[in-house]
Amino acid sequence: MKKLFGKLQYNSPVTLNFAFVSLIVLLLGEMTGNISTNLLFSVYSSSWMDPLTYFRVLSHSLGHADWNHYANNMLLFLVLGPTLEEKYKSKPLLIMIIVTTLVSGLFYIILYPSNVLLGASGIVFMMIVLSSIGGMKEGKIPLTLILVLIIYVGGEFISIGLQDGIARGVHILGGICGVGFGLIPKRG
């Protein structure tokens, strides 16, 4: 057993920590009948005098409605995260995740005050687009980026207005964040 665990590598700390904390939040939600998820890990319009409002704006991406919601987000998150973390490094990726979470949380509170937002899909969309921009060289636009924007973000625009409980605007915002982060010159 020690031999097996000795071969494991914690290769992407931001990605893995996010996935594990999200799993703990999901399990806590299951144990509390989603009271903890609704109180701490979902963002919705509430008084700015309530300190939990500020916490929820940053914590909502850790909350998920159920196992399927978590698994769908984490599948892509765990596939894309290590590559992005290797390319951009841990701290910049963490900053990108925090900024995307903050932007999507504030967007949702302001434009959809009667709705509740939770989950990492905005971050996942940011990662999808950011991964596609990764192939950009000498100012040329990668065809993969164009196709990703058409398929993923375009699909979200087409689906706006569907009453399926999916936060299309947050997906689009995540994609916009991904483009913005990808166009910032990489230092180093």
Q: Can you tell me about this structure?
A:
The protein has 188 residues and is an all-alpha fold. The chain is built from nine helices and no strands. It has helices at 2-7, 13-31, 35-40, 51-59, 67-88, 90-111, 121-133, 143-159, 168-183. Helices cover 69% and strands 0% of the residues. Helix 2 (13-31) packs antiparallel against helix 5 (67-88) and helix 8 (143-159) runs antiparallel to helix 9 (168-183).
Which descriptors would you attach to this protein?
Rhomboid-like fold; 9 helices; mainly alpha; 188 residues
- Under the CATH scheme, the architecture is Up-down Bundle
Mean pLDDT: 86
Shape descriptor: globular
Structural class: mainly alpha
- The H-level CATH homologous superfamily, spelled out, is Rhomboid-like
Number of strands: 0
Whole-number total of structural domains? 1
Beta-strand content bin: under 5%
- CATH fold-level assignment: Rhomboid-like fold
Q: Spell out the helices and strands N to C.
A: HHHHHHHHH
Distance between the termini: 40 Å
Main beta-sheet annotation: none
CATH class equals: Mainly Alpha
Rg is 17 Å
Helix content range of the residues, please?
55-70%
Counting DSSP H or I runs of 4 or more residues, the number of helices is 9
Low-confidence stretches: none
